[in-house]
Amino acid sequence: MTDLTADCARCAALCCVAPAFARSSDFAVDKPAGQPCRNLGADFRCTIHERLEPRGFHGCVVFDCFGAGQRITQETFGGRDWRSTPKIAGDMFAVLPVMRQLHELMWYLTEALELAETRKLHPGLRAALDETDAMAGRSPAELREMDVDAYRGKVVPLLRRASEMARAGRRGPDHSGARLIGRRMRGADLRGASFRGALLIGADLRDADLRRADFTGADMRGTDLRGANLDGVLFLTPSQLRAAVTDDDRL
């Protein structure tokens, strides 16, 4: 099974080079796309990894490639890297956002397959997962030309259906795409709610009941989840949790 968890030790630090950084609350410096971050070491490891947050690199802390980085390095380019083989740098960097989106879709499909309520949908979910994995295994040239948005449009309805089936027993409020920045919802009963694509920046969800709530694609920077019931929450990624304030954070 394809690894959907980032393994930096098997990657050529693609996320530290390929994307551009803009000086902001997420990054302490500006960095052009394709240029190595000034904190990147010769061994492809971050020299300030344990101090990223206090040094102003929150964006690095919350980023998740879903295992795309090591797949590109080890599989797509056969273990080569942009430093030892400079001529492949452009292709490696261009493939990263494509591979990441495919791996993200695979993560969602895998999560949907683990839901008991979606059993009738499992054949379709499994077929979509296998197809997405096969697409991710294509050549660099094919990946560069791939219309990921169009393909995502085919898979998303299946994931929406999975969410609806999982929430059928307790359908909560629909906040899909809602602007909920700073909204106070402490202690609210939000079981089965949909927050798909919602802006939850700085929202207060402390002690809220979020069982079977769908958080697909929600912006959760600074969302306060302390004390919230997250049992059975739907499509909440590790990256979203790192962006939020949780009981695991040191306050």
Write a concise keyword list for the protein shown above:
single chain, 251 residues, mainly alpha, Pectate Lyase C-like, 2 domains, 7 helices, 0% strand, Pentapeptide-BTB/POZ_domain, 5peptide_repeat, Pentapeptide repeat-containing protein
Describe this structure as you would to a colleague.
With 251 residues, the protein is mainly alpha-helical. It has two domains: 8-166, no CATH class; 169-246, 3 Solenoid (Pectate Lyase C-like). The protein is 34% helix and 0% strand. It has seven helices and no strands. The protein has helices at 58-62, 68-76, 89-113, 122-136, 140-145, 148-166, 238-243. The two termini are 38 Å apart. The model has no long low-confidence stretch (mean pLDDT 96).
Percent of residues in β-strands = under 5%
Gap between N and C termini, in Å? 38 Å
The radius of gyration over CA amounts to: 19 Å
Helix share, percent? 25-40%
Derived from helix and strand composition plus strand pairing, the structural class reads mainly alpha
The figure for the number of domains is 2
Number of helices: 7
Q: Report the major sheet.
A: none
Q: Any low-confidence stretches, pLDDT <50, length ≥5?
A: none
Secondary-structure element pattern, one letter each: HHHHHHH
How would you state the average pLDDT, rounded? 96
SS elements, strand count: 0
Shape: globular
